[in-house]
Amino acid sequence: MRYYIGAEARLRRMVEDVAMSVFEGWNYEEVITPSVDYYDLFEQGMGQREAQRSFRFTDNDGRLLTLRPDVTSSVARMAATLLSERPRPLRFCYAAPVFRQQTQSHAEWRRENTQLGCELIGTGGKPADLEVLRLAAEILSRLNLESRYCITINNVEIFNGVAAQLSLDTPAREQLRRLIDTREADELQRFLTTYGNGETRVFAQPTQLIGKRNVIEAARRAIANQRSVAALDSLDELWTEIESLGLEDSFEIDLGDVSSLDYYTGLSLKVFVHGAGASVGRGGRYDGLTGSFGRAEPAVGFVLNLDALTEVLGRKVVQD
Amino acid sequence: MITIAIAKGRMQDSALSLLARAGICLSEEAVNSRRLALMDETGQYRFIFVKPADVPVYVEHGIADSGVVGRDVLMESEADLLLPLDLGIARCRIVVAAVDPAAMTNVQGMIRVATKYSQIASAHFGSRGIPVEIIQLSGSVELAPALGLADMIVDLVETGRTLRENGLTVIDEIAESTGRLVVNRASYQLKAGEVARLVNALKSTL
User: What pTM was estimated for this model as a whole?
Assistant: First the structure.
């Protein structure tokens, strides 16, 4: 529960307008999806673990409904069903509140937050990935956050390729993922002593997973499996484009970003802004998603958290 | 500047001496003052002293970039943090203890467990399918079985002396706990250089 009054509400509206006008400038069409929908949709769209954080209730006939915990699931279903005949690519954007149960330590008002997001559906590869990265960077710089933000990028197939070589069972793979995600160097060392191989030394030093091109070069020296090498190549190419756009100061590579592996299938990104204690946005490529609604095609997108951005910008105004 | 939240109490002295060995020193006068926020001698680090359970809260919200706190506290909290370093300080165990070594099978009816660590206790018994009633206390947990409040306790043990003196024996070990360096996820990216310096300085002392 959170009120915005007067100047704060104006600032929030301004942030939303900036994002939506950038989306529009890139030919993204606005879409408004239902606030209440069947729970099944989100379980298919987000995976069970994430969907379980939604608020659920029943319809008259006993079917399970939920307040939407994300917008991407609805857009993916819409692309696969309502708009299956429309020529590709599809470009959609939205500014919409989503609702999720939070863990105890979070302020309760974060149950509701507004996502500023976009989805680019029906086209894959580097141009599409680069397009959404440039969109995110443009919004942040139009909000005068230039040199105050950092977008981290990764390709989850680097981890998936290495993990596949180890033939781990599901709990062990999840443990490896968690240890890398939380950068637990010592436990990770112990884990890798038992299960690791030559390639896993890439992940063994958590402080060395973040950086610029040097991170890719270091990873290349350790990794040989085809799946990871292909992912490294595409990350490498993306980084070259980022450099040629002069954006390399605002971007970082983070090979340790493995927080949502069951969702993303290639590029993953997170957005950080000075003054915010947690990431203010995330996204990536999710080529597996539209397939679960009957029409498999590549898709990529991201969301920014409007409430978190408003808070950072509000405090910045006070400081300035 | 990096802000480090230190858990007051058990952990505080060993954490500060470890940091001092890593070249991050607080002046004698500062330590002895009663201020809860202090700068180190170089002005690169700010220290705040808070209750152990509050360390994950300050760090998760980014008020502190980093913190030193026991694994027991982290297991009990649901905070989403990075845990780059096991500092190996304040080593202790989280155990199940009871008066009767065979309490697990001898108790009639629902087992009552007194603890400060209700999350850890319910996760431990829950994963074994043992139904228990958790009784949340905030201190002197060893007293509970003697006075009949509970059949067993889940608590931290350093030497085992308090347990012995209250007639309790360890019947199961849940986990080992040591002091950890925790880091906020956003600080890890946005202050990558400074955080890496802190991690490496501490690592070199271990």
Answer: 0.89
